[in-house]
Every structure is written in C-alpha cells, then in structure tokens.
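We were asked to recover a plausible sequence for a given structure. The inputs and outputs are reproduced exactly as logged, with field labels preserved.

PROBLEM: sequence recovery
POSITIONS: 160
GIVEN STRUCTURE:
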C-alpha cells in the first residue's frame, strides 16, 4: 500500500508543478497583454487563453492541496469528537468526495469526447476544448485516488 500512496503523492506533486507553471504562464501572458495594450499592440485571445490555462492551474493544484490537507474545512466540529467518531466522519466525507470527483471526472471525459467529436473550438484562437476537459477529468480521478489514500490512512490510524 505504501507504493500506491507514494505513486499518488508523486503524481500529485507533478500535477502541482504543472499547475505552478500554468499559473506563471497566465501571469506572464496577462502582464504582456497589459503592456502590449498600453503600447497599442494587445495580444489576441489573451482572455480566452488565460481562461483555458486556468483549468490547468486550478485543477492540477487540487490533488496535492488535498493530500497535504491545505484546504479549508470545518475542523472545529470534528475536534470535539472521539477518535472513532472522527474516523467515521473523516471516512464518510472522503467516500462522498471520492464519489463526487469520480462522477465529475467521468462526466468531464464524456464532455471531452463530445468536444472532440463536434470539433468545438474557442472563438478567437480556435483552440480545441477537448484537451482541457480531459485534463480536468484526469485531475478529478487523481483527486479520487487521493481520497482513497486518505481512507486507507484513516483505517491504519496514520491520519492526523
């Protein structure tokens, strides 16, 4: 099981790195567009491209954020519970999250297939949408794997 946990953590780290690169690209593109607009040379499709890259920046950051438990949650409710109750609540929330992200990932893959079949593209740059839908779906599946890892940690008593 340690290998599976290590694999999920490793993939989450790679995804977070990709998210950081995407965020940097968004920032540089926005700054270049603002400077270009000031000089009368705006970059065509900047808003469109930033919106698409945002899918990567946000989606790819979620798994590692969850793995490291850096997200916001209602800890004060759980703190007052005993160990068994905490484990039950944590397991239940992870199961629900696993199911929701699994469903979202499946739907994003279906959406990506529809985008690919219809050859749907963005307005200004005519960039296809399907790679971004597939990428978001992959992120959802990795998030589901993170939830499974957390459930295993809870059961093994290693979840803090």
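RECOVERED SEQUENCE:
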């Amino acid at each position: 099981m340690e290998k599976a946990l290590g694999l999920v953590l490793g993939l989450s780290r790679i995804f977070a790195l990709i998210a950081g690169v995407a965020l940097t690209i968004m920032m540089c593109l926005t700054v270049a567009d603002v400077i270009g607009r000031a000089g009368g040379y705006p970059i065509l499709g900047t808003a469109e491209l930033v919106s698409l890259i945002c899918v990567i920046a946000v989606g790819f950051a979620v798994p590692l954020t969850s793995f490291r438990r850096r997200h916001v949650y209602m800890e004060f409710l759980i703190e007052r519970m005993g160990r068994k109750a905490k484990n039950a609540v944590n397991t239940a929330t992870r199961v629900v999250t696993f199911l929701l992200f699994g469903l979202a990932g499946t739907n994003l893959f279906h959406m990506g297939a529809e985008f690919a079949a219809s050859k749907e593209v963005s307005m200004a740059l005519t960039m296809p949408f399907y790679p971004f839908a597939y990428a978001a779906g992959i992120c959802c599946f990795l998030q589901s794997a993170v939830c499974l890892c957390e459930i295993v940690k809870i059961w093994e008593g290693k979840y803090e």
